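Hi R.,

As promised, here are both runs. First protein below:
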Amino acid sequence: MGDELGNVDGDRIGGIGWVFGVGDWRSRRPRTARPESAGPDLRMRGAWIHRDSGAVAVEAAIVLPLLIAVLLGLIETAMLLRGSIGLSAAVRSAARTASAEPRQEAFAVDAVEALARAGTGVALTQISEVWVYRANREGYPGADGNGGFSIGCTTACLRFRFDPTQGRFVPNGGSWPASSIDACMVTAQSVGVRVLARHAPMTAGLIGERTLSQRAVMRFEPMVETSGRCRP
């Protein structure tokens, strides 16, 4: 009786399970996944991976040198701008110093010393020449109407170069006596300072050497007109 009831109850439970989509709990067995054989699809997928890796390597070999060249160009441009800005500030400081010392014998020497102290943005050994000259209306040496530096620095102009052994700028030619400067109120002359410097690039093969040039012009501060002391 008990066995019959047990069988009946089990059959009923199994039937109910099938009705609800569960199935007979006694007939369940663990299933194992069948391994898939490495067919042609897997081999083709591996070939595509190797082919993509080769394409990436070729693209990197082409693009990487271009990126390096662009990066070096940006660095060189930044260094050029730094040197140009530094020289511009230095020549203004030199011109300001010279203009404050009209008719003083050391006005030009003091000017180049002020240039060195101001910080040029480049090494002082890279500065090839400094001019301290009497500026015309156009801001250049020579008579009014001259618009360049082609006439050189000979009259009313002093040249200096940097001497590494002495660690300072020394005279390098030209002539401009302080007694010839006109510093009167109405007729005061102007003084100009010009600096030339070499920029040696880090990548000489990509960018050649450049010459930086800056100038500044200021009017001599007028002196008191007593006993003709302000006139040549």
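And here is the second one, sequence first, then its structure tokens:
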Amino acid sequence: MTTVNSDNPEVLRQKLEQFLCEQDGATWCRYGQFAVGTAFQKIFSVDHSVVGVEALARPFIDGQPCSPLELIATATDKGENIFLDRMLRAVHLRNFARLNKPARQLYLNHDLQALIESEANMATRALYQARIMELGLTDTEIVVEILEHEASCEDALALVSRNRRAIERELLALDDVTDCELVYQRCQRIEPDIIKLDISVLAYPNYAAFVAQVRRPGLVIVQEGIETQAELERASQHCDLLQGFYLHRPQLATDF
């Protein structure tokens, strides 16, 4: 595979562009045997208005869909993970920009090491900001999603969270949050703007108490994985935003 290491934003851009292509009115990337596009899943307020969409990688091999885990498994070292993360972000941003203002927030999943590295790499940051400007997304709130159980660099993520909130209209979200002592410690140290509760949380007998315990002023709580009317009603009573197949199934950017 290929890694991209450069302090020049234009060199980074040119190398990434080599892997991007346009097809059926959407942007795709080529990565080894994979063709990777974007699917979007809507995120709703409790009154069922759309406030955001999450961008999800959708890989194909020879025109047949496959698991994103197969794609991720091919990035076997840190450099490959960072490169794949950057490339997918470029694909998702371009596909979101094609949509007719579907929501004010775009949720983007990030590899933890790629996020921390990009914070320290001025060329990467410059390229990212240039892309936001070129795509007309300066009014969009970008929500950077990090899996909670991988958020091991609390101090670095806290700095990322503060910097991006202050300068770039970016928010930090912890994803797949469950009930454990480490969650409370990380929320306190990282101070995320948003937490997304794992689907398993919906089955907690102490669901209401758990949500109340993690809530703090200014924190937005999203319940993901909603698949039934009963789960929708339960989450609507305690959370701010809602996501799941019961509300909206992910759609390829070409169909969104």
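A quick note on the second one: The chain has one domain: 9-252. Let me know what you think.

Best,
J.
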